[in-house]
Design goal:
The chain is mainly beta and about 190 residues long. It contains 4 helices and 12 strands; from the N terminus they run βββββαβααββββββα. A 7-stranded antiparallel beta sheet has the order 3-2-6-9-10-5-4. It has a 3-stranded antiparallel beta sheet with strand order 1-11-12, with no helix packed on it. It has a two-stranded antiparallel sheet with strand order 7-8. It is globular. Bound molecules: flavin mononucleotide.
């Protein structure tokens, strides 16, 4: 028996993105954002509430960074989604994490997160619930520890967190179990 649930954001898993910005005084801020994803090969799309300090910073600097949160830093990642830079000036310092300036855009790279996309603002579209931010990926900066022997990112080394928006939980990513563009190949031959 099937059941209608009505309007529910019903995609699983969602990513756990760490959006890094600078404010007007060059202070680092990071927010946790699950409603975001790759739009095209070089574009990233983020859904942001209207009152986020991060949104104000993006409007100011026209740039931001997006890192993938990892298991080791679940406490800090969750904190970045609970506290706001609007009323906690030392939000980033409290996390104990470290930042360096991106060489490509006016945004910080958080050193402890292994993979960061450095982005320029392309467009802000205001919608009823906030803003849809589109960014252009200018560069992807990684810690070498997440690279495989072929020099590409090895997803299993990221230990990335994923978000369950039904149960409001973070999950660990499991093992790869089938090859894409391959698992269905047999059916193309029928
Ligand atoms: C798991 C998780 C996912 C979140 N996803 C989003 C999101 O997609 N968009 C958004 O605007 N806020 C999201 N938030 C809430 C913001 O991270 C939160 O409002 C934060 O305080 C904003 O920080 P800032 O004001 O310093 O930018 C999320 C929070 C958590 C814990």
């Amino acid at each position: 028996m099937r059941k209608d649930l009505g309007v529910v954001p019903a995609v699983f898993p969602m990513p756990v993105l760490m959006v890094g910005t600078y404010d007007e005084n060059g202070k680092v801020n990071v927010m946790n954002l699950a409603w975001g994803n790759i739009g095209t090969r070089e574009r990233i799309v983020l859904n942001m509430g209207p009152d986020r300090k991060t949104l104000a910073n993006i409007r100011l600097k026209k740039a931001f960074s997006v890192a993938l949160a990892d298991e080791k830093h679940v406490k800090e990642a969750d904190f970045f989604g609970m506290a706001t830079g609007n009323n906690m000036p030392d939000k980033f310092e409290r996390s104990g994490l470290h930042a360096v300036k991106s060489e490509h855009v006016d945004a910080p790279i958080i050193e402890e997160f292994p993979l960061t996309m450095e982005c320029e603002l392309v467009e802000e579209r205001q919608v009823a619930e906030g803003s849809i931010i589109t960014g252009k990926i200018i560069n992807v900066n990684v810690d070498e520890s997440v690279l495989g022997e072929n020099g590409k990112v090895d997803a299993s080394k990221l230990h990335a967190l994923v978000f369950d928006q039904f149960g409001m939980s973070y999950y660990k990513v499991g093992e790869p179990f089938a090859k894409a563009w391959n698992a269905g190949a047999e059916l193309t031959k029928k």
